[in-house]
Amino acid sequence: MSKPASRQSFSRRLFVFLGSMNLAITLLVALGIASVIGTVLKQNEDYGSYIIKFGPFWHEIFKALGLYDVYIAGWFLFLLVFLVASTAVCVIRNAPLMLRDMRHFRLDVQEKSLRAFHHRFERDTDTPPEEVARRSHALLERLGFRVREKATDDHRVVAGMRGGLSRLGYLFAHVGIIVILIGGTLDSKIPIRLGQLLGQVEIETRNIPASQVNPKARLPLDNPSLRGNVNIPEGSTANVIFIGMGDGYLVQPLPFDITVKDFRVEHYATGQPKSFESDIVVTDPDLDKPIEATISVNHPLIHKGYAIYQASFGDGGSKLKLKLWSLYPDEVEPLAFTGEVFGSYSLDGGPRGKLKLELTDFRLFNIEPVPDDKGQVHQKNIGPSFTWKLRREDGTALEYQTYMNPQPGEGGRLFYLSGVRSAVSEPFRFLSIPVDPKGSGIKRFMVFDAYVHDEGKVSEVVDAYARQMFAQTGIKDAKVQEQVRGTLKRLVGLFAEGGYDAVLKDVNEHLPEGKREEGLQAFVKMLHSALQVIYARMLEEQEKITQPDEADWQFYEDAVLAMGAMHNYGSPWFPQLDSFEHIQSAGLQITRSPGKNLVYLGSAMLIVGVFLMFYLAHQRIWVWIRPQGKGSHILVAGTSNRNPLDFEKQFARLEELFDVTMHQDREPSRHDMPEGG
Hints:
Elements: H1 2-18, H2 21-40, H3 47-65, H4 74-103, H5 111-115, E1 119-125, H6 129-142, E2 146-151, E3 156-162, H7 166-186, H8 190-197, E4 226-233, E5 237-245, E6 248-267, E7 273-283, E8 291-296, E9 301-303, E10 306-315, E11 319-326, E12 335-340, E13 344-348, E14 354-363, E15 367-371, E16 377-381, E17 385-391, E18 397-403, E19 407-408, E20 414-421, E21 429-434, H9 443-453, H10 455-473, H11 478-510, H12 516-543, H13 550-565, E22 573-581, E23 584-592, H14 596-615, E24 619-628, E25 631-640, H15 644-663
Antiparallel strand pairs: 1-25, 2-3, 3-24, 4-23, 5-6, 6-7, 7-8, 9-10, 10-23, 11-12, 11-22, 13-14, 14-17, 15-16, 17-18, 18-20, 19-20, 20-21, 24-25
Helix pairs in contact: 1-4, 2-4, 4-7, 6-15, 7-14, 9-12, 10-11, 10-12, 11-12
């Protein structure tokens, strides 16, 4: 017999534990902290972005803790289940008592108990007990109390109660919490996680068309809850959405097609997007005709329980016309190239082998902080740009961002900008190519670059420069002359291939440590002398300029700086955006939330419950009447579960009204005493 008793004892202890206030508070605090994490830390991003933000070490820790998708993490669901159980136990334990308390007037109260109340008063009157009871009954009813009476051999009790619905507040609030949690669970990814655990669902990580994904990465059409995204270019149609899952995604088919007829975006004067909307057509085989609607942010289209939101916008495959200027040229004229965003194109990279040019994005507006003449920074649109990658045969790639319009730099001079980085965690390092002050755009720089890379032209110009220099300095030693000519040509060649870094490396390899600084200064001076005469020859032969002005020489300085950095650029071409046909795409978010109405219902119940608990006082008044001679002895006591200061004032007023009622014919109305809140 001891074992069943032990089981009952354990069950009882577990029941009491689940219904304890300490457990409920602990669970609420834990869930509150988890919700803060889920709000501060953006959820369901790809793992690459998290690695950039936190680094590999913390990324693995956060991933193991499930912080990237807090609301379906195992520990979060465990806390959720415990909270539902704890709240349910509280309701089961307390609901019968509260419902009984709402209906029970406690007519069996003892005189001794009433004398222990803080709020009480006593009176002796010549009025018979029956009349006292009648007047007390009428007074309490007029004051808004529900009243019950009980008569015994030696006394009468008149009991009044109002605000009993405040007890329902506790039930509404707790049941509301349970309903909200159940509704939220219905709208979560728990079914997907269960499918993963059972091996029925596998995340797709490859960047392939939706039709080619692993069948286990395609969710069933009748999936009860979902939240996914899809980008649809103008004039295109989609019938699937993509649900992000850590380092991959799942494909969710839709029972209808969505076509984006037109996408519009309005901008502020600075170029920042102001509003955007899409004209869409929903084609459903269950409908006689398609649904046409315009959706915008916070104004979705609801169809069959699916909410179609305008969430974002991007490029939809814009067509770009480029000029590919060779940075190591045999030919000055650029290569004409036409491509589409999201396209991949094979090109011959010369010594670099086969390369793939991948156009990844196009942006019509770029809002950047730009300082004005007074040094104050303003947000300004600096024009279109496109992002592209250059992928080598081994699969590695460099990412570039190139602006269409030249941008002002130091002194107001204009430069074509193109940034490069080897990883998304790095900032772009920009190559700044100066714009010809005489109006040829980028061509002067490219012609100068071609001269510097043309060994025959360099040899011709350096030989002529050396003869002039030898005549002016009187150097006649043939061996010295040949050494100077060779050094000049070698320095230009080193600079053409590797910039200043190549010159520095050569100095470190051929000069002793004590003479390197002096030697470097001498070589840089010789290099600049050679580059100046090459530049002057280029101006004379190509532009018929025999006397370069200050602007020409400023261009030369900017050009040499750009050439010195080109070896870090990593591309054999500098792509110049010549023209484009902008095609936009609408970023749609489509959700299906079967638990939404439950969440609304639970929220309404919670609001009503809180209002009843905190703004409606449960008040009780007892009038205990004992015969005394031909009259009566009266004991009046009262209590309230809320607002004791207000009730004290109300009870004092009740005492006054009671005296009036017992001694006068007029019976006060309920307006003579304020009702409890």
